[in-house]
């Protein structure tokens, strides 16, 4: 922030019309926009950033905050607008922070494209093979292909930028998460699993350090709460990382490794129902029917899905199979 203020002062020395009062006002807009962003008051964050940019359109930090705010809103229009702001912020001041944010934008845009392509593919599958619907099927196939091709381009750009961010900050948890997701979307499973393994090592060390600090250090209540909140974030990130690893391993039919990941998730978050279901499947495919049925029973006790849901039907089928085996051996 000090370097940016210095740059603005130098601009003024060379003919810029900004007064010291305006520079102070820009700093206030910047601070308020960041504070609103941190507490998820995104409309006010956007408002403050835009007001500051009306005075200083070249302010890359305000442009960066605005881009991240739009990205955080998450809807397709906001994500698209975020790309324009973050591109300008990166072009004005390329560093590991702006590289990360622009990389995240390209990842989010790619995921929106892939999601819309999947919806179109499902709609296309519902069309009949009749000649009357052949033209519609063909047009939809072209649209699906174009969206996936665009997604591939965004993913390649995202990976380049996230790697740039990691070069400046190698143990950045969010950047490693994004890298793993990008690689998974690109079907580079081994590389994605390596990134996730690196991420889990960092998170476990972070948890060890914070737990030790809570146990041995005298802290104010505010500092203790801060460390506890940070610890909970570490747990949430590890659950997400292991969930992606488990998904990759399940798709590769590496049931034993998938089971290990799901077990670690359930140690951290035993309330999650889907992980019991997935671990039940992994155990079932390894031939461990008693353990699979135990997981499915727990899943059925926790899930809010209705009786007709595919997961519920599958879980009940495995329980029936186990109980039938018990009766035959009894």
Structural notes for this entry:
The chain has 330 residues and is mainly alpha-helical. Among the domains are: 68 residues, no CATH class; 84 residues; 42 residues. The radius of gyration is 25 Å and the shape is globular. The N and C termini lie far apart (74 Å).
Keywords, separated by commas or semicolons:
single chain; about 85% helix; disordered N terminus; mainly alpha; about 325 residues
| Class computed from helices, strands and strand pairing | mainly alpha
Query: What kind of sheet is the major sheet?
Result: none
Strand content: under 5%
Number of helices: 14
Uncertain residue segments: 1-15
Q: What string gives the helices and strands in order?
A: HHHHHHHHHHHHHH
List the helices and strands and how they pair.
Blueprint: H1 2-13, H2 20-38, H3 42-55, H4 60-73, H5 76-92, H6 96-126, H7 134-168, H8 173-185, H9 189-216, H10 221-251, H11 255-268, H12 273-285, H13 289-302, H14 310-329
Helix pairs in contact: 2-3, 2-4, 3-4, 4-5, 4-6, 5-6, 6-7, 7-8, 8-9, 8-10, 9-10, 10-11, 11-12, 12-13, 13-14
């Amino acid at each position: 922030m000090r370097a940016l203020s210095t740059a603005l002062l130098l601009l003024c020395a060379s003919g810029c019309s900004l007064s010291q009062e305006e520079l102070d006002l820009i700093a206030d807009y910047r601070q308020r926009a960041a504070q609103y962003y941190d507490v998820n008051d995104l409309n006010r964050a956007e408002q403050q950033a835009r007001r500051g940019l009306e005075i200083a359109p070249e302010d890359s930090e305000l442009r960066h905050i605005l881009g991240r705010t739009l990205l955080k809103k998450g809807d397709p229009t906001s994500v698209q607008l975020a790309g324009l702001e973050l591109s300008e912020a990166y072009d004005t001041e390329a560093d590991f922070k702006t590289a990360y944010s622009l990389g995240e934008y390209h990842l989010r845009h790619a995921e929106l494209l892939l999601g819309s392509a999947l919806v179109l593919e499902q709609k296309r599958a519902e069309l009949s093979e009749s000649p009357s619907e052949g033209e519609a099927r063909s047009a939809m196939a072209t649209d699906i292909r174009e969206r996936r091709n665009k997604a591939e381009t965004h993913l390649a750009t995202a990976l380049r930028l996230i790697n740039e961010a990691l070069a400046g900050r190698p143990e950045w948890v969010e950047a490693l998460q994004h890298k793993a997701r990008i690689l998974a979307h690109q079907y580079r499973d081994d590389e994605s699993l390596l990134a996730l393994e690196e991420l889990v090592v960092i998170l476990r060390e972070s948890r060890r350090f914070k737990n030790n600090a809570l146990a041995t250090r005298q802290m104010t209540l505010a500092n203790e709460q801060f460390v506890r909140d940070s610890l909970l974030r570490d747990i949430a990130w590890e659950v997400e990382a292991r969930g992606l690893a488990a998904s990759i391993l399940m798709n590769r039919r590496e049931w034993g490794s998938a089971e290990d990941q799901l077990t670690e998730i359930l140690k951290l978050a035993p309330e999650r129902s889907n992980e019991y279901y997935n671990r039940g499947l992994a155990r079932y495919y390894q031939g461990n029917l008693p353990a699979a049925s135990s997981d499915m029973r727990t899943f059925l006790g926790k899930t809010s899905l209705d009786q007709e849901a595919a997961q519920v039907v599958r879980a009940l089928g495995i329980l029936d199979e186990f109980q039938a085996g018990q009766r035959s051996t009894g």
